[in-house]
Amino acid sequence: MVEMTEYLLTRPHQLIPLTTFADRYGAAKSSISEDLAIIKEVFEEDGMGELLTLAGAAGGVKFIPRIGREQAEAFIGQLCKMLSEPDRILPGEYLYMSDLLGLPGLMNEAGKLFATVFGGREIDVVMTVETKGIPLAYAIGAQLNLPVVLVRRDHQVTEGSAVSINYVSGSHKSLHTMTLSRRALKEKSRVLIVDDFMKAGGTVQGMVDLLAEFNATVAGVGVLVESGAIDTEQRLLEEYVSLASLGAVDAKNKSVTVHPGNYFDWV
């Protein structure tokens, strides 16, 4: 039963026929069904997710990762506390986040939260722009059992032919370029866009514009931290999910204000 649980946890959103377990353990399907009923109960009681059972010849079981509200509140509270540490303040009142993005456990939990929101949507790939958003994108991709597509800042010869666009990002409205290999994304794909930090949303909007070149659809947008100092009128996006919202950064007094994002508006 322990091995069955591990098998399911490492294959989220994947339909697994009962015969897979029956052949694996040399057991009858009825015995496997009884074990799965116990695992399903544990998953739901512990707030780990759901174990869906599909009947019929083509049926089986599928694990859907989900996090309960209480667990989500605890995680977001921890994230806000970590982001509020005064020694994160950099010159120019920027915030250092690279160490958090480099924590696999933290990113894995964040991935579960985003999987809770987006798990019911039709999505083909997770997309992010290099480089800091990569750990978060792969964590979400793992929880949704989806491939990850990386948008480059500069075209690489090894990527083959690519589509490049210019976009405006940053408080100084700087012009940047992003590029995506034509082989990286199929036409008319449904894409979940992910980023580690969003201010006005210029980088995310750039990815949206890039997807239009592939006739692709934006299935959702998820950001780890958004800037709460941006007026709604300045925000380029209306629909997105954020886990934390960065408020005032006071370099003089060494203080950082961080609040929960809009995550709970979506669950």
UniProtKB/TrEMBL annotation:
Keywords annotated in UniProt: DNA-binding, Transcription, Transcription regulation
Quaternary structure (record): Homodimer.
Keyword field contains DNA repair: no
Ranges for domain Phosphoribosyltransferase: 109-228
Top-level taxonomic group: Bacteria
Gene3D superfamilies, per the entry: 3.40.50.2020, Winged helix-like DNA-binding domain superfamily/Winged helix DNA-binding domain
Record domain Bacterial purine repressor N-terminal: where: 1-65
InterPro entries: PRTase-like, PRTase_dom, Pur/Pyrimidine_PRTase, PuR_N, PurR_Bsub, WH-like_DNA-bd_sf, WH_DNA-bd_sf
Originating species: Paenibacillus physcomitrellae
Listed name of the protein: Pur operon repressor
Protein family per UniProt: Belongs to the purine/pyrimidine phosphoribosyltransferase family. PurR subfamily.
NCBIfam families in alphabetical order: purR_Bsub
